Amino acid sequence: MTRLMMIELNRKTLRSYLIAGLLAVVAVTVLMPVKPVWAQVRTLPDFTDLVEQVGPSVVNIRTLEKVKASATGGADEQMLEFFRRFGIPVPPNMPRAPRPDRNQPDEEQPRGVASGFILTADGFVMTNAHVVEGADEVIVTLTDKREFKAKIIGADKRSDIAVVKIEATGLPAVKIGDINRLKVGEWVMAIGSPFGLENSVTAGIVSAKQRDTGDYLPFIQTDVAINPGNSGGPLINMRGEVVGINSQIYSRSGGSLGISFAIPIDEAMHVSDQLRSSGKVTRGRIGVQIDRVSKDVAESIGLAKPQGALVRAVESNAPAEKAGIEPGDIIIKFDGKLIDKASDLPRMVGNVKPGTKAVVTVFRRGATKDLPVVIGEVEPEKPARAAAAAEPKPQAAGPAQAFGLAVSELPDAQKKELKIKGGVKVDAVEGAAARAGLREGDVIVAMANSEIANVKNFEAALAKIDKSKTITLLIRRGELAQYVLIRPLR
Q1: Which of 168, 195, 344, 345 is least surrounded by CB atoms within 10 angstroms?
Q2: Percent of the chain at pLDDT exceeding 70
Q3: Is 84 part of any domain?
Q4: Domain boundary among 138, 165, 192
Q5: pLDDT class for 347, splitting at 50, 70, 90?
Q6: What global pTM score does this model have?
């Protein structure tokens, strides 16, 4: 057989093998059972392992309150008081409880049932501040039915976090999760004592993060079933880590409607660390009253987008005043960090230790300015003072009347009171000015990002304004500053 014939034979043999192999693959594919579509769908999570892992770390909390012994007993005393107050004769057949000894000691009555979880093996337990508020005694019950009388280490109303201590060791502490890894749509689980039903487990998903419902807390929103008694219990991720503390629900009936809120665990740990070390929480402050920046205001003053915190008032002698922050400023950065919305500022400042130096970036009159500030310490808020009364002045004439405004010179005493250099006082409003929300007694301090010195300056600025466009005024109302937009009729 020649070499050529051998090559040809090998080619035919190879072709035969290839065809046979291909037919075999097709046959196997056809004969294989088709995997149904539903089998490819991700299965629902199994929480059994998580419950076994975290369940022993969750505790039941009962609070007791001492009450004075009733003179005649409960409802009978209230009814007798009603008859006495209105001079109504007491019905002869009304039941009367025996009058107890006036030296009888105060009685301890149940005040509430809630939840908590073990922070450390040596007995520190975290719960909500509203759980222990007003309680004379706190009883912590573990899953093994052991009961301990707890000592309240500290409670912080602003964050609704409390820490109590029981005398025990070797306790199963929880694992703390990373809130930055938590995602919307992620499965989470809650363990607590709703309506006193201990160790109840519910589950759901994270509905939203950074939900603003308080000054210092960007809440986690979930659809986990949370009811009275769940307060203070942990919100747990699928890794068995605590990511939040169940604190509030939105409800019209008192029961769960699928909208519940949890305190992020990083915020809670920041508070609990301070409570454990000193029994109280210290927060920073700069002494400003703020508001959100609307889209219309941002556009009218030349701010790129509605962000930052509008300073409506600056507290006298506060760190903000000493730093040169003025009412009407827009704080857009704090220590280099962007402020997306107004509620970001209190949290950023609050987390800074008093006495620390920081830089506040403000947007003022169309330009940004960095102002160094020394952070103060949070103290009780002071009520805003009303602006000093001034003698009425003759109404101004000219361009102001076209906008429904009558203004007059601002007395020096009022300038000193408001700590401003210039401005004009609004004596009367109507038409476009009234529709914009201006009121008699308001003080106009700036217009279109330009300061107003006096009536003459105000009238001159108004005369140059395009009356077909919106006019932006920065006003003072007492100690509060705000922007007012006067829009022309179209």
Answers
A1: 195
A2: 74
A3: yes
A4: 165
A5: confident
A6: 0.65
In the three-class reduction of DSSP (H, G, I as helix; E, B as strand; rest coil), residue 51 is classed as helix
Lookup: tokens for 202:
């519910």
User: What's the burial of 393, exposed, middle or buried (CB within 10 Å: 0-12/13-18/19+)?
Assistant: middle
Between CA 347 and CA 361 the distance in angstroms is 16
Residue 394 token pair:
């003759």
Average pLDDT, the chain: 80
Which tens digit of pLDDT belongs to each residue from 50-88? 999 999 999 999 988 776 555 444 445 555 554 454 444
Number of domains present in the structure of the chain: 4
Residues 182 and 247 in one domain: yes
With b for 16 or more beta-carbon neighbours within 10 A and e for fewer, the 419-437 pattern comes to ebebbbbbbbbeebbbebe
| Catalytic pick among 156, 160, 344, 442 | 160
CA 269 to chain centre: 16
Q: Are 222 and 236 in the same domain?
A: yes
Same domain membership, residue 232 and residue 152:
no
Q: What CATH number corresponds to the domain at position 233?
A: 2.40.10.10
Q: Where are the alpha helices (DSSP H) in 108-201?
A: 129-132
Question: Which domain, by its residues, includes 320?
Answer: 284-377
Q: Is 130 a catalytic residue?
A: yes
* Angle at CA of residue 447, ends 443 and 448, nearest 5°: 155
Give CA–CA dist 454/457, Å, rounded: 5
Q: What is the dihedral of CA 116, 117, 120, 126, to 10 degrees?
A: -30
In the chain, how long is the greatest CA-to-CA distance? 136
- 66 lies in some domain: yes
| Of 193, 231, 256, 343, catalytic | 231
Selecting among 130, 251, 266, 291, the annotated active-site residue is: 130
